[in-house]
Structure formats: structure tokens, C-alpha cells
Specification:
single chain, about 350 residues, alpha+beta, Fructose-1,6-Bisphosphatase, Chain A, domain 1, D-Maltodextrin-Binding Protein, domain 2, 2 domains, eight-stranded mixed beta sheet, five-stranded mixed beta sheet, 8 helices, 15 strands, about 35% helix, about 20% strand, binds 2,5-anhydro-1,6-di-O-phosphono-D-mannitol, binds magnesium ion
Length: about 350
């Protein structure tokens, strides 16, 4: 047969799994921004650094039971008054080391450090601050259950080396990226740069985070309520009313793992609400605004859900101090609204009672 009559060589069949394997985190960030501007390059580099920190922490956690000095307490108490675990210290240091080399981050602030940590040599060019909780849910570490890390990136606006970090005392709408790492059966990194929420799974054979779920949308309503019911008698009556409501209605199920990232992850994918209300002893609750509640609020809003203190959107809260806490109700729109309705109803009743008492 003459050459001209030969059938065209068939294009190799497209291998979808190969395509997927090539969607790494840094490529995804650049695709999202559709630009090679310096800000896009910065964000891509920052996310790659967060991914490196995640891999280092995951490696330590995977072998924690076999390594000297990986588990247990240090004997110290942090600025929050909580006992510090060895893994908290390690993970905190991992983020510092990783970002010291990045050139991009001038300042880090974390749950484990009373004051922000400056990297002076980065400050002339490093235009960003990283806020993070290096090990969230650290009570799970010693028993090999899931833990997480939470992060947010903000533009650095303050004076270089300002220990008070006044410019960080702003609402959460100025976050330019936020996310978390879930150290579970697989290690997952979920992030948003304000263009939807995307999940990546660490493929240990490649050492890369590969896109596993794009544009995650949280259901409008879900069956799960996630709360530490051991605090029942410490809560305001409105929260007790809400819990009594879910006990009395079909279609609800309780799930609580003691690590916010894991509990939030379930709700992000399956719907429902996570609650950490104020208690008698701690009216502001336990969770910290800048590096726990606000980053997750940024994510949940990007996924179509809500995060509230009960009376205000979390992203509108302006902290007075670096380590401020807030009550947190986060998850599906309808479920957060239902919790808020109990809080509002109780507030109205109290106002009516006070008005009646004045008569
Ligand atoms: P941590 O960051 O010091 O570990 O504390 C935060 C954790 C959250 O992950 C979790 O939702 C909560 O504390 C659990 O608290 P409790 O044991 O009071 O239910
Ligand atoms: Mg935490």
C-alpha cells in the first residue's frame, strides 16, 4: 500500500489517571489565577511551602510510635495555658524552618508562640504573614488518631518587626489564602485562594499532593452535628435547646473526633454543623479566631456554607488580640442558621423578661 493510503497513526489514548497525577498543587494555584504575575507566582510558592511543611509533619506522625521523643508532653505550658506536646513543638518549628527559606514570609504567628516570629532577612521582600495552628487536635496525637494543621496567609501591612502586630487585628475577609492539612489515613491538603475550595491527597509514591476533589460544595443541610456534649451543662440554655431539638428529631447523627480539622472535613464533604460554643468558664469558647476559626470560615464560605459566632459572621469579627477566641458554629447554611435561631430566640426571651421586670 502506498504511504498516502495508510491510515493515520492513532493518537495515543488519553490516560486520564496520568492527567490527574499531573495536577499538582503548585500547577493548580497557577491555573486558578490564570496568570504568571508576581502575586500568582508568590501564592504558588507559598502553597508549595505549606505542602512541604505538611509532608514533613506527616512523615514524623507516620513513624511517631517508633521514634524517640516524638510523643508525649514537653512539660511546658503555652500562652493559651495548655500543656505543650512534643509534636506541637516539632510542627511549629517545621513551619518556621520551611518559611525561613522561602524569602516570601516576613512574619509567622501561631498557637504555640506568644508573639509573632519575624524573619528579618525576608522582610524587605517578604510581603506575607503566615498564621497557623501547627497541630490541631493534639490530644489525638499520642493515640494515633487524626490531627490537622490550619493555616491562613495575609498580606503584611504593619511595620517590620512590630511585636504587637496591630495590622493582624483585622477581620477575616482580608485573608488571601487559607486551608488545612488533615493527617488521617491519607494526608490531605484542602485550600482556597478565594476561587473555590479544592482538596489534594498526598501520593506517597510521588511525594506530591495531587488534586482529588475540585470545587467542593458543602450541602445546604446535613445530618451531622459535631460537638463535645460533655460540656452540656457548661453551655448557655440556647445551645442546650438546640441539642435537645436534634435529639428529638429524626435525621441527625452525632460525630465528634476531638480534632477540629477532622470534624470540619467530614462536614465540608457531607454537610451538617460543628459547634464549639462558649462555656461558663470560657465564654468565648476554646477555638482561636486568627488561626483556627477564620481560616475555616474562609473555606466554608467559599464552599457555599457559613461560619458564625452565633450572632455574627466569623469573617466579620475583629480580634482585639492575637490569640483571641470565639465561639464557633460552622457548616451547612441551613444548619448554622438553625443554631443561630435558637440563640436569637433565647436573646429575645431574655429581653422580654428584662422589659417585663422594669414594668
Ligand atoms: P488544640 O489546637 O490545642 O489541639 O485545640 C483545639 C482542639 C480542636 O481541634 C478540637 O475541636 C477541640 O480542641 C476539642 O476540644 P475539647 O477536648 O474541649 O472537645
Ligand atoms: Mg487547634
Amino acid at each position: 500500500m502506498a504511504d498516502a493510503e495508510q491510515p493515520l497513526a492513532q493518537a495515543p489514548t488519553q490516560d486520564r489517571s496520568l492527567d490527574r497525577d499531573c495536577t499538582t498543587l503548585s500547577r493548580h494555584v497557577l491555573q486558578q489565577l490564570q496568570s504568571f504575575s508576581s502575586e500568582a507566582q508568590d501564592l504558588s510558592a507559598l502553597m508549595t511551602r505549606v505542602a512541604l511543611a505538611a509532608k514533613l509533619i506527616a512523615r514524623r506522625l507516620t513513624r511517631a510510635g517508633l521514634v524517640e521523643d516524638a510523643l508525649g508532653f514537653t512539660g511546658r505550658v503555652n500562652v493559651q495555658g495548655e500543656s505543650v506536646k512534643k509534636m506541637d513543638v516539632y510542627a511549629n518549628q517545621v513551619f518556621i524552618s520551611v518559611f525561613e527559606q522561602s524569602g516570601l514570609v516576613c512574619r509567622l504567628a501561631s498557637e504555640e508562640m506568644e508573639k509573632p516570629y519575624y524573619i528579618p532577612e525576608n522582610c524587605p521582600v517578604g510581603r506575607y504573614t503566615l498564621l497557623y495552628d501547627p497541630i490541631d487536635g493534639s490530644s489525638n496525637v499520642d493515640i494515633n488518631l487524626n490531627v490537622g494543621a490550619i493555616f491562613a496567609i495575609r498580606r503584611q501591612e504593619g511595620e517590620d518587626l512590630d511585636e504587637m502586630a496591630q495590622d493582624l487585628l483585622q477581620d477575616g475577609r482580608g485573608q488571601i489564602a487559607a486551608g488545612y492539612v488533615l493527617f488521617g489515613p491519607s494526608t490531605m491538603l484542602v485550600y482556597s485562594i478565594g476561587k473555590g475550595v479544592h482538596a489534594f491527597t498526598l501520593d506517597p509514591s510521588l511525594g506530591e499532593f495531587i488534586l482529588s476533589s475540585e470545587d467542593i460544595r458543602i450541602p445546604e443541610h446535613g445530618p451531622v452535628y459535631s460537638v463535645n456534649e460533655g460540656n452540656f451543662w457548661q453551655w448557655d440554655e440556647s445551645i442546650r435547646d438546640y441539642i435537645r431539638y436534634v435529639h428529638r428529631h429524626e435525621g441527625y447523627t452525632a460525630r465528634y473526633g476531638g480534632a477540629l480539622v477532622g470534624d470540619f472535613h467530614r462536614i465540608l464533604f457531607q454537610g451538617g454543623v460543628f459547634l464549639y460554643p462558649g462555656t461558663v468558664k470560657k465564654p468565648e469558647g476554646k477555638l482561636r479566631l486568627l488561626y483556627e476559626s477564620a481560616p475555616l470560615a474562609f473555606l466554608v464560605e467559599q464552599a457555599g456554607g457559613r461560619a458564625s459566632t452565633g450572632t455574627q459572621d466569623i469573617l466579620d469579627v475583629i480580634p482585639k488580640q492575637l490569640h483571641d477566641r470565639t465561639p464557633l458554629f460552622i457548616g451547612s447554611k441551613e444548619d448554622v442558621a438553625l443554631v443561630e435561631s435558637f440563640i436569637q430566640e433565647r436573646a429575645r426571651d431574655q429581653q422580654d423578661q428584662m422589659a417585663a421586670a422594669r414594668l
